[in-house]
Amino acid sequence: MPCRRCRSTPGLPDDVAAYAYLLGLYLGDGCISDHPRGGHCLRIACADAWPGLIEACRAAILAVRPEGSACTLQRQGYVMVTSCGRHWKCLLPQHGPGKKHERTIALEPWQQEVVDIHPWSFIRGLIHSDGSRIVNWTEKVIGGRTKRYEYTRYFFTNSSADIIGLFTDALDRVGVDWKAANQSRTAQNISVARKASVALMDLHVGPKS
């Protein structure tokens, strides 16, 4: 069965919200390889610590390709969610040889349309792959008494400047303030710390489960 991208008049995937989420997961922790019997295999790595993420990944794959399947393969410390078929390369045209941060990563116009329609699904996929939600704390002495204050922050870390750009562009689109945090030779780190922006992220993204 041809996918929506393979029809004589290509269209958007049937479930664009699921696709936007899956695209974020793929850009963070996914890859596509050729299957020895023909077709291609999409593989997305999900840490054992987040069983809810593993199931969300499977659900997104099946929503995008309901006639296909998605299996889980246990690895050391993580699960590889895998789906094989003949259309993953046309659905995810960012595939290519080598590591993502060593080549150009840009969205096709139709993918950008999907992200524009569902920016929060795309952001959630990126955070669930290469991001985190943490609670920092500090103590202050007020009136002779020590009080503990907690505050939430979101981080997104990736080695690809192009993927970082896609993430921050999506944040700008939904009105989330962000800033570049510590940067190493191998990765860039984006922080969301302002209270109003964290509240938006908690509403639309939330912690991994």
Write a brief structural summary.
The chain has 209 residues and is of the alpha+beta class. It is built from seven helices and eight strands, in the order αββαββαααββαββα. The protein folds into two domains: 16-106, Endonuclease I-creI (Roll); 130-204, Roll (Endonuclease I-creI), CATH 3.10.28.
Task: Name the strands of the widest sheet in spatial order.
Answer: 1-2-4-3
Radius of gyration, rounded? Answer: 19 Å
Helix content: 25-40%
Q: Secondary-structure element sequence?
A: HEEHEEHHHEEHEEH
By CATH, the superfamily of the largest domain comes out as: Homing endonucleases
Question: Regions with pLDDT < 50 over 5+ consecutive residues?
Answer: none
**Number of helices, where a helix is a run of at least 4 consecutive DSSP H or I residues:** 7
Task: Report, as a whole number of angstroms, the end-to-end distance.
Answer: 34 Å
Can you tell me the overall shape?
A: elongated
CATH top level label of the largest domain: Alpha Beta
Structural class: alpha+beta
In the CATH hierarchy, the architecture of the largest domain is Roll
The mean pLDDT is: 90
Strand content: 25-35%
> Main β-sheet: number of strands, strand sense, barrel status?
4 strands, antiparallel
